[in-house]
Amino acid sequence: MNRPANTICIGEIGSAHGIRGLVRVKSFTVDPEDFGRYGSMTDENGQHHFRLDLVSRHKNQWLAKIEGVSDRNAAEALRGTRLFVPRERLPALPEGEYYHTDLIGLTAMTPAGDMLGEVCSILNFGAGDILEIKKEDMSSLLVPFKGTCVGDVNLGEATIVVMPPEEAQ
After folding, report:
1. What angle do CA 137, 141, 143 make, to 5 degrees?
2. Last residue of a domain, one of 89, 114, 148
3. What is the per-residue pLDDT across 71-104, written as a single tens digit (0 to 9) for each?
4. 61 and 104 belong to one structural domain
5. How do residues 123-142 score in pLDDT, each as one tens digit?
6. Is there a single domain that holds both residue 59 and residue 109?
7. Which of 122, 123, 116, 119 lies closest to 137, judged by CA?
8. Are the C-beta atoms of residues 83 and 41 closer than 8 Å to each other?
9. How far apart are the first and last CA of the chain?
10. Is the residue at 119 inside a domain?
11. What stretch of H or E contains 129?
């Protein structure tokens, strides 16, 4: 799908909660409390708009009422929908911090200038962000997104300097 330019994914609708249309929503914002501050959201292709009323917080998710969704079936139909807002609604980032969407698609290079592949996703299993780099042979290289393994990020040239962990010692 082609998402509208300059939008950032800030959450994802999970399973329905109860029979009156509530849904669980996972926030991707640094501070989950900020999730409700960004106003209406769209789906990935920008065709559907959502107004969420956050009801309560449960662990790292919100229970939310979505305008126009009044039963469990309608809520379940939205499961897996990623929620996007225009970039200009989000705060400017300090030097050296990036939105995940800015890193995906960058060409990963070694410090010597050899191409490793392309950043295809950012993973986080609880201990910090990990770059997944898809190599030419379609295998993946996983590199922690931290100072010892990642050097210069150049968004203008769409490159990132990466030192694979075995070389970072």
Report:
1. 160
2. 89
3. 999 999 999 999 999 999 988 888 888 888 889 9
4. no
5. 888 778 899 999 989 899 99
6. no
7. 116
8. yes
9. 40
10. yes
11. strand 129-134
Both 146 and 110 in one domain: the answer is yes
**CA 30 → CA 47, 58, 76, 89, distances in Å?**
26, 16, 26, 15
Supply the pTM of this predicted model: 0.78
Residue 145's domain comprises 100-162
| 24 and 47 share one domain | yes
C-beta separation of 50 from 36 below 8 A: no
- Nearest of 34, 27, 36 to residue 59 by alpha carbon: 27
DSSP letters along 38-100, please? G--EE-TTS--EE-EEEEEEETTEEEEEETT--SHHHHHHTTT-EEEEEGGGSPPPPTT---H
**Per the domain annotation, does 169 fall within a domain?**
no
Pairing label, strands 7-17, 82-86 = antiparallel
